[in-house]
Amino acid sequence: VRSFSVAVIGATGAVGQEILRLLLVRRFPLKELRLFASAKSRGRRIRFGSEELPVREVSKQALEGVDFVLLSAGKERAKVYAPEAVREGAVVIDNSSAFRYEPEVPLIVPEVNLGDLDKHQGIVANPNCTTALLAVALWPLHKSARVRRLIVATYQAASGAGARGLEELHRQVGAYVRGLPPETQVFRHPIAFNVFSHDSPISSDGFNEEERKVALELRKIFHEPDLGVCATCVRVPVFRAHSEAVVVETERKLSVEEARRLLAQAPGVRLVDDPKTNTFPMPVHASGRLEVLVGRLREDPSHPSSLAFFLCGDQLLKGAAWNAVQILEHLAGILPQKS
Ligand SMILES: NC(=O)c1ccc[n+]([C@@H]2O[C@H](COP(=O)([O-])OP(=O)(O)OC[C@H]3O[C@@H](n4cnc5c(N)ncnc54)[C@H](OP(=O)(O)O)[C@@H]3O)[C@@H](O)[C@H]2O)c1
After folding, report:
1. Residue 10 CA to ligand 1 centre (angstroms)
2. pLDDT digit string (tens) for 69-117?
3. Quick one: how far is CA 166 from the chain centroid?
């Protein structure tokens, strides 16, 4: 079996840590694993199976001979490191938004548009977490009945803002219990026991950056430039796993039963839809899982061919690390095993 030299840039981060866990549990054939982070992490060592690997700073020399780079260190770093790694002969899978909208860069959700992977020129983009989860659930419905328009409201976990976002929620919950005021460092507003509009720049049309990403990325992944998307992205005090309330208008009317059947067979989806016991997707169940949980399927009474549903997915896994590792497995020619 061929083995590969892999670099993880951002190995100390929330996504990077999940990538390392997945490389291990998926038994990715590694010839060598190189870990990178910022200067702040110099000297740190990270356990990988039975080994303790050093964390290094990125340099041209340090990337020499690497086959694949899993880049998870933000947009500005990606713009610098990805071209460097490609020049060194590596294929880069980037988790940031730096290249997602470049026409020559494939934006991949393996359950949806794996065919686009062939056209890569060294860089493959991983979608935004909210988009990836939504794409997995939406695709089987789209394939069968063509989604024309969708309205989505999100409930996004604190860890969507990285390891520091997660720590901030922990810290603020602790402060609240001790009767202390919340200290805000990562989020502009208190995250503990609060709900606020996604804290990303708002453009002149009134949508924030996260909401624009959902629309742009879904259109690119689905090859549907005219897909109508209206998103409202909101941060909630959940540690891990994003939720999304979705209403889709389809060209052909889909009954709840048909949609349920399609979703039950769809790769990457787990149907959690039991009205009798009020059991539907929840972040506590989605956390740590590779699949997107989908449920609360019902016909939208306000429109003749519209369906409503709810989903939860681990945004650190399917929304980031797992999607990237799936792409890596495909690029490496390893058949994805059933998880
Ligand atoms: N969190 C999510 O749910 C999620 C989902 C989808 C996509 N993403 C994307 O994934 C990327 C990583 O997100 P995250 O949530 O893992 O963030 P994070 O927890 O803040 O981790 C950021 C990582 O980048 C490293 N880094 C910072 N500056 C660096 C530099 N100059 N050189 C090399 N490494 C550097 C950090 O190292 P130090 O520890 O040394 O600072 C850390 O390992 C981002 O592009 C984000 O937009 C995140």
Report:
1. 5
2. 999 999 999 999 999 999 999 999 999 999 999 999 999 999 999 999 9
3. 16
* Distance (Å) from CA 142 to ligand 1 centroid: 32
Q: Please name the amino acid found at residue 86.
A: V
Pocket mutation for ligand 1, best pick of 9, 71, 81, 95 (most atoms within 8 Å of C-beta) = 95
Helix (H) / strand (E) element for 191: namely: none
State the CB neighbour count (10 A cutoff) for residue 153. 15
- CB distance 105 to ligand 1 below 6 Å: no
- Ligand 1 atom 14, closest CA: 162
The C-alpha atoms of residue 93 and residue 9 are separated, in whole angstroms, by: 10
Task: Supply the residue whose CA is at minimum distance from atom 17 of ligand 1.
Answer: 162
Calculate Rg over the CA atoms of the chain. Answer: 20
pLDDT for 1 equals 77
- Report pLDDT digits (tens) over 273-292: 999 999 999 999 999 999 99
Write out the E strands in the chain: 4-9, 30-36, 45-48, 51-56, 68-71, 91-94, 123-125, 147-155, 196-197, 228-232, 234-235, 242-250, 269-271, 292-299, 306-313
Determine contact, residues 149/119, Cβ cutoff 8 Å. Answer: no
Q: pLDDT per residue over 213-249, tens digit each? A: 999 999 999 999 999 999 999 999 999 999 999 999 9
Ligand 1 binding pocket includes 13 (Cβ within 6 Å): yes
d(CA 311, CA 133): 8
Closest C-alpha to 200, from 246, 138, 154, 169: 154
